[in-house]
């Protein structure tokens, strides 16, 4: 049974598309790496085996390794931690790392699985830039502009204060924007709320009093 488990572990270690490596906890000495490690970093086995992670300068911020080791000592496992790593060619990648402690005899090792998330990081940057452009536009138009999910207010621009003298912070604890609509205009306001149920998006214009 033990031999069978070792064979399964060895197979999973070798064929994983992610980077998998085993390092000595005390100093980061590389014991083994898989092909995923080489594909992700460019480092071959001959570059790393018998050397430490600090020797090959793979950590962009060496203090990150110390932080990870401290957490492993406390919890024996860490999950989904983002770190920056150097590739062999000097370029930098963002890795999503999970690790756990392995003990063999008197020595303690770290089994690490890391996924390259550069594409995710780039997508985040695009979304962030789009959000910043949207907010810059919304804050500089003269009209009151708000966003809702159903009838729940999630954003209102500063024109609210310029036009009506109401601080956007007043809306932070409002359970529904309908609280600010005159009761006789509720049916009209409901048409706006029900936009989410329309089969296709199209602009509509309605007048309500607040």
Order of helices and strands: HEEHHHEEEHEEHH
**Could you tell me the strand content as a percent range?**
15-25%
Major sheet: arrangement of strands: 2-1-5-4-3
Q: Report the sheet with the most strands, covering strand number, pairing sense and barrel closure.
A: 5 strands, antiparallel
List the helices and strands and how they pair.
Elements: H1 2-15, E1 19-24, E2 30-33, H2 35-41, H3 45-48, H4 62-75, E3 77-86, E4 92-104, E5 107-116, H5 118-140, E6 146-149, E7 152-156, H6 159-164, H7 186-193
Antiparallel strand pairs: 1-2, 1-5, 3-4, 4-5, 6-7
Overview features:
210 residues; alpha+beta; two-stranded antiparallel sheet
Can you describe this structure?
With about 210 residues, the protein is α+β, with helices and mostly antiparallel strands. It is built from 7 helices and 7 strands. The protein has helices spanning about 1-15, 35-40, 45-50, 60-75, 120-140, 160-165, 185-195, and strands spanning about 20-25, 30-35, 75-85, 90-105, 105-115, 145-150, 150-155. The strands form 2 sheets. A 5-stranded antiparallel beta sheet has the order 2-1-5-4-3, sandwiched between helices. A two-stranded antiparallel sheet has the order 6-7. The longest helix has 23 residues, at about 120-140. It is elongated, with a radius of gyration of 27 Å.
């Amino acid at each position: 049974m033990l031999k069978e488990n070792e064979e399964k572990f060895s197979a999973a270690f070798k064929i994983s598309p992610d980077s998998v490596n085993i390092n000595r906890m005390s100093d980061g000495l590389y014991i083994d790496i898989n092909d995923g490690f080489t594909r992700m970093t460019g480092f071959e086995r001959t570059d790393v085996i018998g050397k430490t992670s600090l020797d090959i300068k793979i950590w962009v911020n060496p203090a990150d390794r110390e932080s990870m080791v401290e957490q492993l000592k406390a919890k024996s496992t860490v999950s989904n931690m983002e770190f920056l790593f150097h590739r062999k060619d000097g370029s930098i990648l963002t890795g999503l790392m999970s690790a756990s402690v392995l003990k063999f005899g008197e020595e303690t090792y770290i089994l690490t699985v890391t996924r390259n998330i550069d594409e995710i990081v780039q997508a985040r940057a695009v979304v962030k830039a789009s959000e910043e452009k949207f907010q810059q536009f919304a804050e500089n138009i003269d009209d009151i502009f708000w966003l809702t999910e159903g009838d729940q207010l999630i954003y209102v621009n500063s024109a609210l204060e310029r036009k009506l003298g109401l601080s956007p912070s007043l809306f932070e604890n409002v359970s529904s924007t309908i609280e600010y609509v005159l009761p006789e205009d509720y049916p009209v306001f409901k048409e706006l709320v029900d936009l989410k149920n329309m089969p296709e998006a199209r602009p509509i214009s309605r007048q309500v009093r607040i």
